[in-house]
Every structure is written in C-alpha cells, then in structure tokens.
Amino acid sequence: MIQNFHSRDAWADAAADRLAGALADALAADGRALFAGSGGSTPSPIYTRLAQSDLDWTKVTATLVDERYVPEASPDSNAALLKRSLLIGPAATARFIPLYSPAVTVDRAAALASQALTAEGRALDAVLLGMGEDGHICSMFPGSPTLTTLLTPSLKPAVYGVPAGRDGAAPPQERLTLNLSWLAGARRVVLALTGAKKRAVFEREAAGDPAVSPVAALIAANAPLEVLWTEAG
C-alpha cells in the first residue's frame, strides 16, 4: 500500500503528478474539477509543483480538508497557506471555497461550508491529506467527542465543527473538517507522509479499529487511497 520514494523531491513530484492527473481527468470528463487540500508544513512542496501543472485552473474549485476556526489573516490559517503555495501563478484563477466564515459559532460556520460544498454537486476529484503523529487526518483527532460522528460512513458528506481539546488534548483551538464520507467518495486521495516515525504510525493505525482510527476508517470505507512516503523528513 505504501509507495516509497528515495528523495523528498521525487516524493513531491509524484504526489503533484497524481493530483494533477485526477484533476485533468475530471476537466476532460466534466469541464470542471474539485480539489481539497490539507494544511501544515508537509504539503507545501507538493502545492508548489501542482501550481505549475498545465490545467485550466479557471475551471478548478479548491477547498480544504480542514481548517482552524481563525480568519485568513491569522498565521494559523490553512486558507492562507493554500493561497500562498498553491493558488499562485496560473492556479490563482481557481475558485476557492473556504471552510472558515466569521459566523457566530464554529458549528454555524461548518453548516455554511457544507452548503457551499454541496452546491458544487460533485464528489471531490482529488484530495491531498497529511497525517499527524497521533494518527489524525483532517481534524479527526483521537479522543475527540466528534470522532464517532466524523467516522460514520453512512452519513452524507458534510463539514463539522470540532471543539478544542480539554486538559491539553488536541486540537488546541476549534476547527472545521470534512467528514469521512467526503474522503471515501473522492476519486483520488493522496496521503503524503515523510519520516520513519509517521510510517510507523500509519502502519499501526492502518491495522486499527475503523471506529476510532481515521486511517483504518478510510481503508475500511474503500477510499481510493494512495500512500506516498519518503524517509526524508
């Protein structure tokens, strides 16, 4: 299941190629495409390469797999990261659907984001995921009170609010996240991992309980998952 790459450059090139290929297929078939990306430091080199892909970006819509409940001006904003690293050059013409909105509550913001994504009327064509050292993907954190709902495969695709963890548990602030159904229904999902520790975490989580492990739930739901790994952290 894990595809190994000898260098970080080869890993980033391969991830960008797979994502661009899925978007190109969607554009050829439907004249439009829907992409969802992750935040954090890991995806930046992938986004830089993807932004250079020869696609009709005017017909691509981009969103996030999760977001902190902060405005784009915050240094913690995943939207700001995506706009700095992916939505540049020709890719700047893509349409962007944020998960965050300055609603009264994170749950209301989640409802608004759900409406906006559902209005696209299509599944995700390409998804880039990362994974934390605790095994979380998107904002599906171990021990979170929302985890059971987020991992329920029978629920329709939606965006959910995630509360801040208590007593030092992750996440440190409220978040918004896509649920498992969005990921399982996607046409291609690339999970990009670096370093020996995250490989070990992935292998442990892949063999875990789909009711509590997001990675195991993704596999059990038969998501079109491709795991790309390089030892170079």
Automatic annotation (TrEMBL):
InterPro entries: 6-phosphogluconolactonase_DevB (IPR005900), 6PGL (IPR039104), Glc/Gal-6P_isomerase (IPR006148), NagB/RpiA_transferase-like (IPR037171). It catalyses: 6-phospho-D-glucono-1,5-lactone + H2O = 6-phospho-D-gluconate + H(+). GO terms for molecular function: 6-phosphogluconolactonase activity. Residues 7-219 form the Glucosamine/galactosamine-6-phosphate isomerase domain. GO terms for biological process: carbohydrate metabolic process; pentose-phosphate shunt. Coiled coil: none annotated. Transmembrane segments: none annotated. Its EC number is 3.1.1.31. Keywords: Hydrolase. Pathway: Carbohydrate degradation; pentose phosphate pathway; D-ribulose 5-phosphate from D-glucose 6-phosphate (oxidative stage): step 2/3. Belongs to the glucosamine/galactosamine-6-phosphate isomerase family. 6-phosphogluconolactonase subfamily. Hydrolysis of 6-phosphogluconolactone to 6-phosphogluconate. This is 6-phosphogluconolactonase. The lineage of its organism: Bacteria, Pseudomonadati, Pseudomonadota, Alphaproteobacteria, Caulobacterales. The gene is pgl.
